[in-house]
């Protein structure tokens, strides 16, 4: 796979995706299309397959031996599961931010420079570090302390550092798995502001337990729900404004009005 081949379109498309862990099917027949430069939220009850679906996109589930996927996931014109496609390369194109901020035990500068450095980036590291920190709305807070440990920052700052680290590898898609669940409300709002800013340049897919958050930041929402056999289905996928005001499925309505989950 060449970067060029996959750079032709950043939108993600799921075609009839099913997921198994060993004998257990956990997701059945998900088809949906994520639009470029929008924020797409994945919501649903606990155990409903949200993280699993997200991790299908950057092939993180491949690290789990019992994982098996049927169907296809497309990144633009590129089939992410085509024989010979390289998960490492995919993760440069499709970055990920995790639930708990997880900076390396290195300086703020080195946290951001790490990815470009190991990726053989030939431009100016200083410039990409500054640019990534600015894009993550952290530069002004850390520009005078770049040599300090990333672990010395507050939780919200650490999460923005992790976002800067992701931006430094120059992805076009950013996956966020509950990025605010370890943060206080003010740090959460700062990340949400940042997401709105970033969507001008990146396609963002966020898993969130927090429906208010999905309502505040996302353009479209996917609602996943497990059936009585604990197999998750895509119940509804729509513009967030429409889903939250006029859901088409009664299970969506029950969930967003807090009647279960
Ligand atoms: N590594 C794994 N091995 C086996 N089963 C797994 C594994 N990871 C997740 N599962 C199962 O897959 C199903 C979906 O889990 P997943 O974590 O994707 O749901 P989720 O909606 O993200 O949940 P939560 O909101 O609680 O984080 C669950 O039944 C879970 O037990």
UniProtKB/TrEMBL annotation:
GO terms for molecular function: ATP binding; ATP hydrolysis activity; phosphate transmembrane transporter activity. It comes from the Eukaryota. PROSITE patterns: ABC_TRANSPORTER_1 (PS00211), ABC_TRANSPORTER_2 (PS50893). Coiled coil: none annotated. Residues 12-251 form the ABC transporter domain. Gene3D superfamilies: P-loop containing nucleotide triphosphate hydrolases. Keywords: ATP-binding, Nucleotide-binding, Transport. InterPro entries: AAA+_ATPase (IPR003593), ABC_transporter-like_ATP-bd (IPR003439), ABC_transporter-like_CS (IPR017871), P-loop_NTPase (IPR027417), PstB-like (IPR005670). One of its GO terms (cellular component) is membrane. Transmembrane segments: none annotated. GO terms for biological process: phosphate ion transmembrane transport. It holds the Pfam family ABC_tran. This is Phosphate import ATP-binding protein PstB 2.
């Amino acid at each position: 796979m060449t970067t060029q081949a996959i750079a032709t379109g950043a939108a993600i498309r799921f075609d009839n995706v099913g997921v198994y862990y060993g004998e257990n099917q956990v997701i059945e027949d998900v088809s949906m299309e994520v639009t470029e430069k929008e924020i797409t939220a994945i919501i649903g009850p606990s155990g409903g397959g949200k993280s699993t679906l997200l991790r299908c996109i950057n092939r993180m589930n491949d690290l789990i031996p019992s994982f098996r996927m049927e169907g296809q996931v497309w990144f633009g014109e590129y089939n992410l599961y085509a024989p010979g496609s390289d998960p490492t390369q995919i993760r440069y194109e499709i970055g990920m931010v995790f639930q708990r901020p997880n900076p390396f035990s290195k300086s703020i500068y080195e946290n951001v420079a790490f990815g470009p450095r190991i990726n053989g980036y030939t431009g100016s590291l200083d410039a990409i570090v500054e640019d990534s920190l600015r894009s993550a709305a952290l530069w002004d807070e850390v520009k005078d302390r770049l040599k300090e440990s990333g672990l010395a920052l507050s939780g919200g700052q650490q999460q923005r550092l992790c976002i800067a680290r992701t931006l430094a590898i120059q992805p076009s898609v950013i996956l966020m798995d509950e990025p605010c669940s370890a943060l206080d409300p003010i740090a959460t709002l700062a990340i949400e502001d940042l997401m709105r800013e970033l969507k001008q340049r990146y396609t963002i897919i966020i898993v969130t337990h927090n429906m208010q958050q999905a309502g505040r930041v996302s353009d479209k929402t996917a609602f996943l729900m497990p059936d009585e056999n604990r197999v998750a289905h895509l119940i509804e996928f729509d513009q967030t404004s429409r889903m939250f005001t006029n859901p088409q499925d009664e299970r969506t309505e029950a969930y967003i009005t807090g009647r279960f989950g």
